Structure formats: structure tokens, C-alpha cells
Amino acid sequence: MYPVERALWFIENRISKDVSLQAIAASAGVSSHHLARAFGAATGQSFGNADNSGSFEYIAGVKVTEFSDLPGGFATVRISAQRYAIFRHPAHVAMLRRTHYTIWNNWLPASDVKITDGPSFERYGKDFNPITGTGTIEVWMPVSESRT
Questions:
Q1: Percent of the chain whose pLDDT exceeds 70
Q2: I need a surface site. Which of 44, 46, 113, 138 has the fewest CB within 10 A?
Q3: pTM across the whole model
């Protein structure tokens, strides 16, 4: 397993805990600098919500029709309707990096769209098994027509 894939697996298995960039890098056997560069090379993006301590926010969510019935301690996020490119990830969740790499380095340069402001997210299907790491996963990327 590659360092970025090991890092993703580490994060996904600690979703409910605070995780620092240093801890993620250590789990992958690389420095935090190397991990950040590898992530950037794979996606063309920075870690996003990283703060000065190297921590960042990863939100796991579920679609609900009403916010008032949520248990205490839950946060709410509204995702506005917009255009998305949707990619099916056909392999183990630890290999999700390859799908992101292909999106950023193959599909995007050859397409007539550009990534636009908005959240990108992974959508896990009802058949996804968090124990085995297999099942339907979609990667949703916010896009707009390219203005070249």
C-alpha cells in the first residue's frame, strides 16, 4: 500500500477522533511534508482546512430531511445545489487515492470543465462495508464550464 493510501486508511479508521497531520504521516511512514506534497501531487489541492498545528477537518455526513431531530453534538452542513462530476470508485477504499489521481491528472485536463468553488465529497452506497472497505463509492467534484 502506498503512503497516501495508508494515510487515508488511518484517517478513515479514526473518523470520530482528532487526528493531526503528524500522526497521519507517521502512520504512513513518511514526514508530514512528504505526505502533504504527495497529496498535492495526487489531487492538485492542499489539505484544505489545515491549521497551524497541522490538524484538519474531515467531515463524515449523512443526508437528513430535518436538522431538529439530530442528537446533541452533531453539526449540520448544507450543500447547495450545483453541477457535479461524479466518478465511481470500483476498488477497495484504500485505493481511493488512485481515483482522485485519475480525476485530477487525466480526466480534468482532458475535459471541458474546471473544478469550481464548493465541497467535493465521497458518497458511500448502502452496500459499502466499513469492515472490509469494499462497496460502492462515488467521488463528487464541483464543476463548471471551462472559460479558456
A1: 78
A2: 46
A3: 0.60
